Amino acid sequence: MSGHDSKYFSTTKKGEIPELKEELNSQYKDKRKDAVKKVIAAMTVGKDVSSLFTDVVNCMQTENLELKKLVYLYLINYAKSQPDLAILAVNTFVKDSQDPNPLIRALAVRTMGCIRVDKITEYLCDPLQRCLKDDDPYVRKTAAICVAKLYDINAELVEDRGFLESLKDLISDNNPMVVANAVAALAEIQENSTRPIFEITSHTLSKLLTALNECTEWGQVFILDALSRYKAADAREAENIVERVTPRLQHANCAVVLSAVKMILQQMELITSTDVVRNLCKKMAPPLVTLLSAEPEIQYVALRNINLIVQRRPTILAHEIKVFFCKYNDPIYVKMEKLEIMIKLASDRNIDQVLLEFKEYATEVDVDFVRKAVRAIGRCAIKLERAAERCISVLLELIKIKVNYVVQEAIIVIKDIFRRYPNTYESIIATLCESLDTLDEPEAKASMIWIIGEYAERIDNADELLESFLESFPEEPPQVQLQLLTATVKLFLKKPTEGPQQMIQVVLNNATVETDNPDLRDRAYIYWRLLSTDPEAAKDVVLAEKPVISDDSNQLDPSLLDELLANIATLSSVYHKPPDTFVTRVKPATQRTEDDEYPDGNETGYAESPANAADGGASPPTSSSSVPYGAARQPAPAPAAPAPVAPVPDLLGDLIGLDNNAIVPADQHATSSGPPLPILLPASTGQGLQISAQLARQDGQIFYSLQFENNSQITLDGFMIQFNKNSFGLAAAGSLQVPPLAPGASRRTLLPMVLFQNMSAGPPSSLLQVAVKNNQQPVWYFNDKILLHVFFTDDGRMERTSFLETWRSLPDSNEVLKEFPGIMVSSAEATLDRLAATNMFFIAKRKHANQDVFYFSAKIPRGIPFLIELTTVIGNPGVKCAIKTPNPEMAPLFFEAIETLLKA
Amino acid sequence: MISQFFVLSQRGDNIVFRDYRGEVAKGSAEIFFRKVKFWKEDGQEEAPPVFNVDGVNYFHVKVVGLLFVATTRVNVSPSLVLELLQRIARVIKDYLGVLSEDSLRKNFVLVYELLDEVIDFGYVQTTSTEVLKSYVFNEPIVVDAARLQPLGPAAIFMQGSKRMPGTAVTKSVVANEPGGRKREEIFVDIIEKISVTFSSSGYILTSEIDGTIQMKSYLTGNPEIRLALNEDLSIGRGGGSVYDYRSSSGAGPVILDDCNFHESVRLDSFDMDRTLALVPPDGEFPVMNYRMTQEFKPPFHINCLIEEAGHLKAEVILKVRAEFPSNITANTVVVQMPLPKYTTRASFELEPGAVGQRTDFKEANKKLEWGLKKIVGGSEHTLRAKLTFSQESHANITKEAGPVSMTFTIPMYNASRLQVKYLQIAKKSSSYNPYRWVRYVTQANSYVARI
After folding, report:
1. Tell me, what's the pLDDT at A595?
2. Tens digits of per-residue pLDDT, B412-451?
3. What is the pLDDT of residue A747?
4. B107 close contact with A: CB closer than 8 A
């Protein structure tokens, strides 16, 4: 033990460990107990007491539960660092799991499940099996959670030993605690499994709804959360569910209330009767408001959720705006959320009250809160046309107080108000100009300058005002410089007199010669060219009428809102982000990788410890135990469970020379033929409906190849599809042919597509937005990527001569180049074949030093050709691709396609 | 499910640390503390109770100055975790009598034993002190409450929370009295936190009562208890607005907006005679939470006047009038008022013969503070403050000062008029007559007068 000795001598007080060791081996019970307590104390403050392992484990065999628990706590902490010694405890664990005292039985399985050491896990199975069928509910509920623990360590073992079935049996247990834990365990296992394990049928539903009434508050949350995945078959079933969940709204536990709200909101989507819906909304309002009487931390969670709820169902809290008024002593994070909701609930009816509040908040001390309050006034002005004037007069009052940051914030929102109501409130500009010299924040300055430029013709001294900013032009932040540039141009166009003319020269000079900022320089050059070639055109461009902006207080995208609403009462609804953006569940590190501070067995001195342990008088084996004592010294038996099966390489793919990226698990072809399509709508998002799709070209025609998989509980029918405007105007050429899908069924279909139907403006983009609906579910939106090679037509072959001619005729600016350092061409022929199959035609090949250079041609509809040059060293990573085309803006899309093709 | 649970002191020391799933690295407590401490660079803004750092979600609540924290990697129910953290604090308080850094450190073995029963593999098992008693064997080492230092800055955390109230009971639920036998007694506290906002002209803009009927039972054998509330109590405001102003005069029915009950409460006869029946579990718990926005008579009337008094000078006159009967006394009253930023000096003048009052001008945040140890019902108190400014006021001094806020505690008074008419304990024998304490207390939550 010398290696460890030196370690703790350097870190802990001298003599402490030997002293403890002595006490742990005392013949007096009380002294041993005290010693273990001291060890635990040392452990919790971070001292390393692992060297006392054998001595502590020796205290494990005791009838004294208090002492036993302490030893177990120690074991959980150190077993991982001492796996060989941990096996010493197995005997006692197994014996304890058959103890007449149910507390000891439960304690044994609970602790064994927490020790993530393979050797212990092996011996867990038998006790666990017994405990799942124990007479005592305390033991059963502990065993239920233990199954989840075991699944986390070794999923295969759980499935092989039939623990999942035992767990499912526990759903019908007569003890609600057991039911709740079984539900929690199954839900976690399902979360980490791709197979359907825990499916909620209408039968389990009714069982769980009954258990709900008898459960502890925490069990109620587990059950409600598990049930929220259930999709009712029709409105009537939904109403029944809601009726049984509604009493939960009266619970004192906020978690129960929110989980019940989630469940009700979800079922409400199916309920068609407006009376029922209205009634439910009425019932939900008071409990939601009551959440705001809880601790501020809970209030915060409630407010973030309410924010989502009112976006979907504004009527629920339409009359409750007063409860969102900020209290003087609310923490700032609560105040900020309340403001957000006040804006959302503000209406013509309550705006006077709301403005009074905002005005008050704007004079408080907390700067961030004050700013947000000022902005809130502006947002209300933009949202409520009839109240705009009142909002502006409040803003003007605030400006008059002359608190610097209030003024600046007010100017920023007033700029937005001007954009929302052009030519309405310009009379206040004079007041704004009074505060000109106090502005020191870039956004406020930029806003003020924008206002001056936009209304230069109405401000008599606009030129003087702008001039005052010009002096510091080089020192201003880019945001302000850009506004100054534009405002000066506007001024000049509106008042082409001598003053502005001089100013514009100064500005253009500053913005072109004196600056390093490319954005500023480019904009300045554009103005310069415009002004020098055609001032009238410049007017049309610069002084063009701007689109009116709208209210942004319901800023969430509908599909995101849908997803977040499905996640009410989870972290997702607090962050307002879909779960997959922040859940990064890592599998717990396997043995030893985590506790790297503990040396492996091969380090000096460490190997002695097992011997020491044995000599130190570990408990002798008992006859009832199935564990051979010698196991500690012998090499461990090979683990019973096979290692997780590695994905089987696709042999076919291998034969035709694909690289390793192409290896797919073989079982993906289970349901239908054809290569697997990428999953675009996972079942978890689609309430059980999974959609995979990809664009494909077959026989010169473009198809959308789709696969639908119904993993939900209900039959889905009436499928329809719609494509959003896209760069190629892709649209469905026929209707979607999908028959009703029974639960568990899947269907693959080819949807013929046409081009140039609904083109979107702007630079070409590969984004394809798809919406799919059916009669049972909400509309699903997902994004796909258009891969250009699908469009390559079969008439894209060019003769060598015309290739050369075209190449020369196109200007060099039409040549775009991209390198793919990670791609390797291992066989020229295979690559050429593959490219030819997608209508990318080989023209010629030449050697350049050690590199091979290939030339290809391709064409997309409307006759746009691509001339391609690929340079690579066969068998070495790195491909250079140069293309020439009359439409170079297509180049990024082309490169995406070629990358996919070369990687395939 | 939860990965880790820990308790940190105000300085960030680890007092308790339990890892349930081994999926979050050990340094999480330090990462958390640094993040909370420096949420905004200026240290002004408080961190929200839930946030994510590098894929780990951190939850925390503050209880008597201690940080109760949980971490997780998955998309759990945040209200469950936050509620759980509060409950863990409560269970520990039930067991230890006093919740403090000292008592936690002295009882760490017991605390770990509790934590193992409360959470298994990150899943809450139970937070009922009653249930836990049959699984937990360590005896608490009771820390003498009398020796406890006043909580200092930690005490402000008592303000915001409703459920860790000013109950004077600091006795462990499980520990025996030094004398041996436990005293048979039960405490029922009706705690109301009131929020009122007065407009500058003295009208009530908003008013709200958040109430709790809190129970802490030391009765052996868990006898059944019946609590009778006002017979004319009604729940839900449905169309009652016509009656609102009539009831504000102090008569008429008590109308609650909403209420909820502890799971042990049976409401069989509640609709009939407004009686709650329950077998109280051990430990402290809320029998009923309620919320009321029906108008009520505010206990204090605040009057504030600011006048310019010459060049760079102004005078503030603050008047507080107690609008409750003279047999009731409010205590620990503090009146605060932010003054204009350019205030350099404030000199105070109390009414002649004033006792137990203190005044202060907090230079750092330009705040006037007026403390009154006691205010007897029906009395009125005045404070005059002469202010000196460093610059001319821009517009109107009243726009740059205020609002006036007030904190207070009024024992044996409740604004809602909700009452426990009687507290009946099922009798075991004719001689069984435990002590019953029914106490009322009203505290200010956000009591603000705009000027």
Report:
1. 39
2. 998 999 999 999 988 777 787 888 888 899 999 999 999 8
3. 86
4. no
Distance CA A708, CA A886 (A): 39
What's the pLDDT band for B169 if we cut at 50, 70, 90?
low
Does B240 lie at the interface with A, CB-CB under 8 angstroms? no
- Would you say residue B37 has pLDDT above 60? yes
- Distance of alpha carbon A402 from alpha carbon A435, whole angstroms: 8
**Residues in chain A within 8 Å Cβ distance of B133:** none
Full set of structural domains in chain A with CATH: 676-786 (2.60.40.1150), 791-903 (3.30.310.10)
Alpha-carbon span A556 to A562, nearest angstrom: 10
pLDDT tens column, B240-296: 443 344 444 456 788 999 999 998 899 888 888 899 999 988 888 899 999 998 888
Domains of chain B are: 4-132 (3.30.450.60), 165-171+182-190+204-296+417-437 (2.60.40.1170), 300-411 (2.60.40.1170)
**Which residues, including other chains, have CB under 8 Å from residue A227's CB and lie 6 or more apart?**
A200, A205, A208, A209, A241, A263
Asked if B46 has any chain A CB less than 8 Å from its own CB, the reply is yes
Nearest CA in chain A to B49: A297
* Contact (CB, 8 A) for A755 and A728: yes
Kindly list the residues from chain A whose CB atom is less than 8 angstroms away from the CB atom of residue B124.
218
With a cut of 90, say whether residue A783 has pLDDT above it: no
Residues of B in contact with A188 (CB under 8 A): 1
Contact call for residues B44 and A366 (beta carbons, < 8 A): yes
Q: Are the beta carbons of A176 and B126 closer than 8 angstroms?
A: no
Distances (CA, A) of A776 to A171, A234, A712, A735: 28, 8, 11, 19
Please write the tens of the pLDDT for every residue from B47-92.
999 999 988 999 999 998 899 999 999 999 999 999 999 999 999 9
Computed over every residue of chain B, the mean pLDDT equals: 85
Question: What's the pLDDT tens digit per position in A817-852?
Answer: 888 888 888 888 888 888 888 888 888 888 887 888
CB-closest option in B75, B121, B260 to A252: B260
> Judged by CB atoms within 8 Å, which residues 130-189 of B form the interface with A?
135, 137-138, 159-163
> Which distant-in-sequence residues (6+ apart) come within 8 Å of A647 by Cβ?
A663, A664, A665, A666
* Residue of chain B whose alpha carbon sits nearest to that of A361: B403
What pLDDT is stored for residue B429 in this prediction?
A: 77
Give the separation between CA B293 and CA A394, rounded to whole angstroms: 28
Instruction: Answer with the residue of higher pLDDT: A812 or A171.
Output: A171
Cβ within 8 Å, pair B50-A572:
no
Quote the minimal CA–CA distance from A222 to chain B in Å.
Answer: 9
Distance of CA B417 to the CA centre of its chain: 19
Q: Sort out which chain A residues have CB atoms less than 8 A from B57's CB and list them.
A: 571, 582
- Give the three-class secondary structure for B83: helix
Record: contact A145-B120, CB cut-off 8 A: yes
Q: SS3 of A529, please?
A: helix
Sort out which chain B residues have CB atoms less than 8 A from A44's CB and list them.
14, 16-17, 108, 112
DSSP state of B323: -
Closest-CA residue of A relative to B195 is: A327
A91 vs chain B: nearest CA distance in angstroms? 22
Lowest model confidence (mean pLDDT) among A176-180, A553-557, A691-695, B174-178: B174-178
